[in-house]
């Protein structure tokens, strides 16, 4: 970046210098032209007036003195074009001037001004002519350098000045690029918004700051999650290993073997559920599940979930019914299945024998609302905003007893966020729970 700023500044100085040089040259040339016209017109006018009041001898002396003084050429031409006087050549040896543009115009309009470039382009001649009252025309001519020869003659000086200004620009550009870059290099990446002098960088610094906060938050969550995972895994593994050790050493009575095996089986199942949920969550975290966003037929999906939950419904003696509109949503099908399954499974498990679970899916304006309602044990108000946290359980021992992992609703929350939806909860202890998920009908998946 430093090199780029430096190079750009140098290129800019170079370009500016060139443009200014051309501009100054053209300006100088034009101003010179205007001044010449003004000055020569006034001179030739003065000469014309003087000629009217002098005799021929006086005229000759007068014209010679002016020509010498001004380093100009003065010519007097008769009406028929014959040269009567010329300050540089013998008039008798000069050709007829009738057709010279400046003479022609002076006879026609009273005065004229013209510039002619020599063929070699090294010189240009300015002509100013004026008609005298006595009928002749007087012409004054100056020879000066052409623009090209002016450029050529100025080139060596120009290069010296150019080189000097370029060196100066290089030094200034180097210093300036350093001054610009230094504060950027010294940004305190951990506290980017403190003492930074370019306010143009504020949006970037705010983003860095936000990123830092999120990183810290994620790091904290990750640490907490790892600690929870280890803790949750440790309990069933310890139980399994303990019981297996007793069985291995023959310390369990024959009639207790079945009970111990059942315990080992249950703990292993819990372990498998836990590992499965952890895998699902980490895949969601890494956004690895979003493989296929498809148009999902919600009634077919709900029936599939109902079927797979049949054994749980039977075990808990809960009535499970569906009220599904014929709706399709654009979503990741596997995630949607997981969401319905977890919400319905909770509604069944945290229920009372003989209770009910209603799964409703309906369209509401541009949204799709999924409602899972039960008349189970309910959730205390102060726990309702925590149940979506990983490993949070209202009643840990109850949840463990029914094989909960504490990750089901965390997965639901993730799925809803992934599909840019929202979750609402309405629950009363002893009365029941209603969880509502609102999703856009045409889900935009990030
Ligand atoms: P778990 O695997 O323990 O069920 P979840 O994340 O699915 O974990 O749920 C978190 C906690 O929220 C549960 O432990 C339970 O206490 C409470 N909960 C979830 N759904 C319901 C419900 N329908 N009725 C009552 N309590 C519920």
From TrEMBL:
Alphabetic keyword roster: ATP-binding, Cell membrane, Kinase, Membrane, Nucleotide-binding, Phosphoprotein, Transferase, Transmembrane, Transmembrane helix, Two-component regulatory system
EC number: 2.7.13.3
InterPro entries: BphY/WalK/GraS-like, HATPase_C_sf, HATPase_dom, His_kinase_dom, HisK_dim/P_dom, HisK_dim/P_sf, PhoR_single_Cache-like_dom, Sig_transdc_His_kin-like_C
Keyword Metal-binding: no
Domain Histidine kinase: 228-443
CDD domains referenced in this protein's UniProt entry, alphabetically: HATPase, HisKA
Gene3D superfamilies: 1.10.287.130, Histidine kinase-like ATPase, C-terminal domain, PAS domain
Transmembrane segments: 6-31, 147-174
GO terms classed as biological process: cellular response to phosphate starvation
PANTHER family associated with the record: PHOSPHATE REGULON SENSOR PROTEIN PHOR
Name recorded for this polypeptide: histidine kinase
């Amino acid at each position: 970046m430093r090199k780029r700023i430096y190079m750009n500044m140098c290129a800019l100085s170079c370009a500016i210098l060139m443009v200014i040089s051309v501009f100054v040259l053209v300006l100088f040339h034009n101003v010179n032209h205007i001044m010449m016209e003004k000055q020569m017109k006034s001179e030739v006018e003065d000469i014309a007036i003087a000629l009217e009041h002098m005799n021929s001898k006086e005229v000759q002396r007068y014209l010679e003195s002016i020509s010498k003084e001004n380093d100009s050429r003065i010519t007097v031409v008769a009406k028929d074009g014959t040269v009567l006087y010329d300050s540089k050549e013998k008039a008798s040896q000069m050709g007829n001037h009738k057709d010279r543009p400046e003479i022609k115009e002076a006879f026609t309009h009273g005065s004229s001004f013209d510039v002619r470039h020599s063929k070699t382009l090294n010189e240009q001649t300015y002509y100013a002519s004026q008609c005298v009252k006595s009928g002749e025309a007087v012409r004054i001519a100056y020879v000066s350098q052409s623009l090209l020869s002016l450029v050529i003659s100025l080139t060596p000086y120009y290069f010296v000045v150019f080189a000097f200004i370029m060196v100066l620009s290089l030094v200034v550009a180097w210093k300036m690029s350093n001054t610009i870059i230094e504060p950027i290099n010294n940004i305190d990446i951990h506290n980017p918004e403190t003492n930074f002098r370019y306010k143009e960088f504020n949006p970037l610094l705010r983003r860095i700051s936000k990123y830092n906060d999120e990183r810290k938050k994620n790091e904290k969550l990750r640490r907490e999650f790892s600690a929870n995972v280890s803790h949750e895994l440790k309990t069933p593994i310890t139980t399994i290993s303990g019981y297996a050790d007793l069985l291995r050493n023959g310390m369990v009575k024959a009639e207790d073997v079945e009970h111990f095996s059942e315990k080992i089986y249950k703990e292993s199942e819990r372990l498998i559920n836990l590992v499965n949920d952890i895998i699902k969550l980490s895949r969601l975290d890494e956004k690895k599940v979003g493989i296929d966003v498809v148009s999902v037929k919600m009634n077919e999906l709900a029936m599939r979930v109902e079927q797979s939950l049949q054994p749980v419904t039977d075990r808990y003696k809960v009535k499970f019914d569906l009220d599904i509109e014929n709706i399709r949503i654009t979503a990741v099908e596997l995630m949607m299945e997981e969401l319905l399954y977890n919400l319905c499974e909770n509604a069944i498990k945290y229920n009372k024998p003989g209770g009910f679970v209603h799964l409703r899916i309906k369209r509401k304006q541009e949204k799709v609302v999924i409602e899972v309602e039960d008349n189970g044990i309910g959730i205390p108000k102060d726990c309702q905003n925590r149940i979506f946290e990983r490993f949070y359980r209202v009643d840990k021992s109850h949840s463990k007893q029914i094989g909960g992992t504490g990750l089901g609703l965390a997965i639901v929350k993730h799925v809803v966020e992934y599909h840019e939806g929202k979750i609402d909860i309405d629950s009363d202890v002893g009365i029941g729970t209603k969880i509502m998920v609102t999703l856009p009908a045409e889900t935009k998946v990030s």
